[in-house]
Amino acid sequence: MHLDMVDEVFNHDPYPALEAVRSTGPVVHDDVIGEWLVTGYDDCARILSNVERFTSEVPAGSGPGVFGGPVFETMDGPRHDEIRGVWARDFQRDRLERHRPMIAGVVDDALDAFVPRVLDGECVDAVEHLTRGIPTRVIAALLGIDDADQAQFSAWSDAMGAVAGAFFDPSERGRETLRAGLEATHALNAYIAAEVDRRRAEPGDDLISVMIESPVASTMSEAEITANNTQLVFAGNETTAKWMAHSLVTLARHPDRRRWLLEDRTRIPRALEEVLRYETIAQVARRTVRNGDAEVAGVTVAEGDVVTCLLGAADRDPQRWPAAATFDPGRPPKTHFGFGFGLHHCIGIHLARLETAIWLDRLLDRLPAWDVAEPLDYGSNFVLRGPLTVPVRLA
Description:
Structural class: alpha+beta
Strand content: 5-15%
Radius of gyration: 21 Å
Order of helices and strands: HHEEHEHHHEHHHHHHHHEEEEHHEE
Low-confidence stretches: none
Helix content: 40-55%
Number of strands: 10
Strand order of the largest sheet: 1-2-8-5-3
């Protein structure tokens, strides 16, 4: 069996193909890409929680990586905890509450420009004119970056996000996507490096300053400091913007559930979690077997083999969720893979939840009913899946 992960038809609705993999067996070898595909929730959880046997670390000598240097996302040992720990306090739920007024202001600014156009009868792309800019402005504020640079940040982040899918695409399109992504990384790294120098001279109450002034910084190279801040910019933008876009589409397709939210806004967090389960953004988690052969669901996988956890399939595992292919925000909450798992669960989980909850609550206030012009274009990036445009109009 083979999954063509860069095929746009597949990426538009990958779930039938993912279910075909599941029906073949819990562990299926893709002979074209030479990797093992895993679809079950419990099997994926065991793989992602066992870093001793299944590693995400980049092999030594393989280059600077996607972010231009070593980042904690690709570390499995104590170094991961050291670097991640620099910002751990700043991303705690109670600590983030102090930023609620700032986030609400960013959301209101975006809605002020977007909602009147829809109410006037326009069909407006919500990705370009609403969802894309909100997380960019928020993470820029937390990093102490000038608001005027947020559009450039979005462009860099978009190009970097496309790189994940390009690794599976050997075509000319894939090579061009990879080239553009690496250029964006280089540009963002240069920008962040200049900000790092500025904070050394004038430290402030921002995340770049937090890293520079931490004891860990003295153990980090300049490339490492820059790359980890670049990673934070990317992580703070990409998945949250796609989560908002998926929410717009899913609630447009399920107007009864949108009315259910209008009746009781305390349901918003549960609905957003269900969107993330139902339309998982980070669809792929690749791990390499190390320290001897490993067993996955009764299948022996050799040391050095790559195991690909299909997280979107795992988040629709019928053994974990009854009617798993149905969007049901009223179902009992259970942990999903929308924020990663184990050692590499998302550091910004509470920030993303706060942003999306504020955004959806305020959107429902001002635009309680909307429709989306179909069909949507999801492009070819299955690794970080989301609609490229979401044309919104008044329902």
